[in-house]
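Inputs:
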Amino acid sequence: MTIKNFYNEMKDEAGQVRPHYASYAAWLSEMPEERLAQKRAEADALFHRHGITFAVYGEGAGTERLIPFDIIPRIIPAAEWKTLESGLRQRVKALNLFIHDIYHGQEILKAGHIPPDQVLNNAQYRRVMQGVDVPRGIYAHIAGVDVVRAGAGEYYVLEDNLRVPSGVSYMMENRKMMMRLFPRLFSRYRVAPVDRYPDMLLNMLRSVAPTGVTDPTVVVLTPGAYNSAYFEHAFLAQQMGVELVEGQDMFVKDEQVFMRTTQGPQRVDVIYRRVDDDFLDPLAFRPDSVLGVPGILGAYQAGRVTLSNAIGSGVADDKSIYPYVPEMVRFYLGEEPILHNVPTYMCRKKDDLAYVLDHLAELVVKEVHGAGGYGMLVGPASSKAEVETFREVLIKYPERYIAQPTLALSACPTFVESGVAPRHIDLRPFVLSGEEIQLVAGGLTRVALRDGSLVVNSSQGGGTKDTWVLEA
Amino acid sequence: MLSRTADHLYWMARYMERAENIARILDVNHRMSMMPQSRIQEEQAWGATLRIMGLEAAFHQRYAEITPDNVLEFMIFDQDNLSSIRNCLRAARENAHAVRGTLTSELWETTNGTWLKMRDFTPEAFADAGAGEFFEWVKYRSHLSRGVTIGTMLQDEALRFIRIGTFLERADNTARILDVKYQLLLPAGEVEGGAADYYQWSALLRSVSAFEVYRKVYRDLITPARVAELLLLRVDMPRSLARCMKEVYTNLQRVRNAQSAETERQAGELEATLRFGRIDDIVRGGLHNYVIRMLARTQELGNRIADDFLVPVS
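Outputs:
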């Protein structure tokens, strides 16, 4: 692997431990490796017993695995977080304004900042949402923005996940685990707590209830116990103290959504849905979906129920829209974006494609509609044959791909087979937008456990770490 | 509470209880097989075990003859036998998994932990550790999950449906155990058994943790009629039909809804029948017929509860 010169979260170029890692590094140096291994085994056993697992597709129903948990925390200094937080607020605010605009006046298209066909012919654009008003005009109530660090204080946004971002339960469980394994470490550091998240989430969901509903009933909608993120769905419902429902538990009558309870039908006002748009309503979208509720779109359009995130939010997190986000920040807020965007080549453009084909071995190529680290090429990490195979696909379907320079993701010390060694990481903070924009100081740090790998997705052998945002 | 949630809680409890009862039934047979007995007696006893669960036909599709090893393997490990202990513990866990947010974390972890252990348990390990130890373990895990349930769950609807599941299943199992053993030990409708059957009757009592209870209650010889009375009519006996129905009725009253009046009435009627029943009348009319009727009414009650609460039609 050719990524050199990456930013090391713990040590600077001269090999000196950075100030915010000093206390931890001292502690770590006194920790024998056997003890670390023992702690890691303890963590695995606890995660298994607690059933904190994700379901694996294609290995038979009910196959469950642990997401590997690394016991070395990723530490973010207070000042750095402050910048990051402002950047995230700004970005998510602009994204919500963009979605609202797209489904109403489309001013940004009229002003010529984004080619209209890029938006209106996008698979994530939902015509049924045109002219529909949603509470507070907010669409992406929950955003999981993936950021990476390329240098000191230099954060880049990789993806804005505005549909059903997951991972927040691991943010919380990882913290719980660290406190259990290493209680005394927490007296060395003032780590910002993350356990308020479910409270904030519930408040936010209640704040976007349909107009006129004073004491809204909130539910979490899951595709079911075999979904890969089922643990998280159950976790959030439990932490918020609301029902975890499946599509079959609900029905629509007179444009009102009800759930079937032991005491008869009960009205539902806000649905935190963890089901994709396509599966929400078999009458409106995919007719073969058994995960949704027939007629729910009608109730939604009539303003009788809130769906969170809103239908059609995906139009703003699509990889082909991503390059325009800085433009959105300028257009809607009149501000300069605080967070960087990664330069992006759109292969559907002739010039861009030519450049990409010329530099394939240096670039990361992603599917426009892909997610989860599937169907992508990391040029520098691929063999010649792999690059050539990908080239053929790219020439055949250029509109399906974008390309970006291979970012030198920062690396954080990680406890792996060979001992403690740097591994590349990213960060997914969770931004809540309701009456106000809020986020807990932290997020999910994902780590590529294989030496040199830049792919952090759990489906591709990635693990997670606890993320410590230090209090000032 | 969601109907589907109630349904999962109910079945979680039923499967855990069923696993325990199967362990109890097998344990008794296992103990009895250490007594001197003929090949015929042995086969009868293990055959009766299969009959209790209504699994004779399924067994014979898979095994040529009834031997202790075959029955044990079938009833503990068989992946195709839905009532094997392994499958019961798995089903209990799957149901718990589907509603894990409704359970306390202690209850979820207990149920999950039981399954994880069972999943990794092999017939070889079973042979190694010995049957007795395994059955003790199953009973212990069931005790534990019941204790955690009562000790940690909020006393709301969720707990009620768990309790209803537990007691309906237990009523069914106790009735079946009694019926099959009665037929085996008193084939021609006799009222008194021979002295040689003392071990059989005491084993039956032990299988429902009632041996010491019997001594305490009757302070007398073990007779079949008293055993039947204890297991059917004694409200203070935790595994008797009368106690189970009292629990079902009480819990049902606490979850009543707009359509459950008739179900509640039937549960109350069944409970009263047992509470006011006399063993002499039952024996005179034929115990087998009585138990068959009770099983049918218990099953009907279960169906009604499902219709009213768990899988509502509208």
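Remarks. The radius of gyration of chain A is 22 Å. Residues 345-405 of chain A form a domain with the Dna Ligase; domain 1 fold (CATH 3.30.1490.270).
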